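Morning run. Coffee first, then this:
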Amino acid sequence: MNDFLTAIGLVAVIEGLVLVLAPSRFEDIIRALGSMSLETRRNLGLIFVVVGLVIIWAVKAL
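And here it is:
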């Protein structure tokens, strides 16, 4: 459970940094996501999940 909460905290920090350091770029990203089809957004989400799992697997394997 400790690792899970740490992961949630890291996600919050990273997303917060995007908003602090580049708020106008964040708006551009939101607009770009809004103009994508539902299928494209779903595929993008799947890619991020797979990349995240690969990173977790690689870190745990060390």
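The mean pLDDT is 93. Good start to the day.
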